[in-house]
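User: For documentation purposes, I need each entry recorded in a consistent format: the amino acid sequence on its own, followed directly by the corresponding structure tokens. There are two entries in this batch. Please keep commentary to a minimum and don't merge the entries.

Assistant: Recorded as requested. Entry 1:
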Amino acid sequence: MDKRIFKTVEKSMDEYHERFERFFPRSEPREQSLKYMKGLIAAPDRRNGWELAEMAGDKCPDRVQRLMYRNNWDLEGVLDEHIRFCDEHFGHYDGTFIVDETGFLKSGKSSAGVNRQYTGTAGKITNCQVGVFLGYTSEHGNALLDRRLYMPDSWISDSKRCARAKVPADLQFLTKPQLALEMVRHAVFDLQCSGSWVVGDEVYGMDPCFREGLADLNLRFVLAVKRNMKVGKVSGCKVGRIPLSFWPENTSMSLEKIAAGLPDSYWTSLATRAGERGPIRYEWAGLRVIVPDEGERWLLIRRSLKHSDDLSFYFSNAYSDTPVMQLAEVALRRFAIEQCFAEAKTEAGLDEYEVRLWHAWYRHITLSMMAHAFLSALKKTLEDRIKNVSANCERHSQMVSNSKNGVVRRRVFHGLDQFQVSQKDSGNARALPRKILQAGSK
């Protein structure tokens, strides 16, 4: 194993953290936040308070708890600097903002926002917190930009319960699309992040105010919608396409019926992204329709090659001359945020926290997103250098003894096929290491 790599990584982490130091007015939280991120990345087991304290060289988790609960530091300033960092490393004019949520399973009732609600993490209604996230993807890589803790109305209407969890007294109930639009507006309007597209699932695509808000920001979207939605027919016929005789003029029709009636000439088989066994191929169809109260929009339909009733539907405000292939490619960029969630939970402890208060949740999630962004940027900058030594890298953890104090330090260097691969290299490039920081250093 090349020790120079570890020295480079630790130095890079220290330099990375320097850009955030001005948001920590005192030395203790400033130093502890760096140790916290290193612990999130390098902890061999579960990232609880004791484990993170041990990784930081502390005798007990008091400092970790002070960082989460009591230390004074500018959380929003740190977040904005994190977003700027992501824009510098991954930003592209054709980049895509992704809105989605993920669940954090909980057994108790005291954690801010916890409630019996549906989460895709468990695939059912269960006791959990739900975080709404803004992700980003481009040809340079993927990252999580922003986060909001979804607070159910049952929480907002219970002032005593909110007070116990330190929820701001003036916090109002916002739907998930409203939270998502706040984050998009902040990234695009306030911080001038690069990007042209927004993608999301039905939770966001079915909200007309969300679609309108994106259009007001001059962003193009490809958003999933439900099959029972009804749209109007655009008069006339595109050159080279046969008329839709099954669809009477001046009549609204559900998306599902439109898909069933489309002639074969509307469908095109396209390979749109690489899976574990090679490119994934679907049939796609695109046509212009009239969306109520919005006007003319693209209707994009995806159909499985094996199961014709396996359909997905999307609305887009893209230009009328946009190729269907481009719309299909943009629609599938949404899966990049699932990759970010998986990486951030596995590699940076996104879902491994023991905090209950509202502001502590935001602190942990922000530091975890920063750790994940650091790993993603490291992958990008070290890719060429890492290939030269990849053949000799060990796949599993290596224990290195510290003869000075007798403490055993763990250095983890996983295989290069495990970590994030950028879109342009997806399917054929080797990925960078997942955990490569030396932990336990003082």
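Entry 2:
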Amino acid sequence: MARPRVSTGIEGLDDILKGGLPQGKSYLITGEPGTGKTTFAAQFILEGLRRGENGIYISVDEKPAHVVEDAESLGFDLRTPVEQGKLTLLDVSPYFNWVRQGKNNAIDTTEVIQDLSKQIRRINAKRLVFDSIVPLVLHRERVHDVQEFIRELIFSIDDNLGCTTLMTSHIWPGAIGAAEHSVEEFLVSGVVRLRLVKAGEGRYKRAMFVRKMRATPVELREYVFDIQHGRGLVIQEPLDE
């Protein structure tokens, strides 16, 4: 039996995905800095709220207050659903201090999932955003431990939380097209890549590519998109390079 589809909130993307993301799985939004990953995640959460689906937004790189302010600058209101108890913003950066500081103690995946489960049950959340998982992949001296943690995290989220989950991750400028891919790309059910494309003398445009989407026959082509006030990411036309 096919899984129900979850709308992304991105104009034009649901059509590409044959109705949206398969429900209850984890997806990776990856790209260079400035390509719109956090805006994508905010739209996903807001679309859920519009449909009566409460959400959890986990901010690792920024304080929750900054996420709210950034959303407001684009015409999105995250503050009201937080005040109404429909959206929970979490700052979980303390979980990842071991990565930044090189400590030997490992994060207990079970503890993280238990904490998230409490938050999800508290507001009956159906959508979860993890922005971002970059702190988990920067500490190359312990790459095996990092990979195992990501593996356990993704599998535990899919098996235990009952949410459709978006994770964001960085591609560093110039790294697109490299043969080596991060372990999370293999584990998630879908990967959407965002990038900047040179469009002429001194001009760039943004492009989106659904690199992977399980249970979905997507066409392997890139699409140009804009970031517009009040609308966020809006897909335009196929990229013609």
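Summary note for entry 2:
The CA atoms of residues 71 and 77 lie 7 Å apart.
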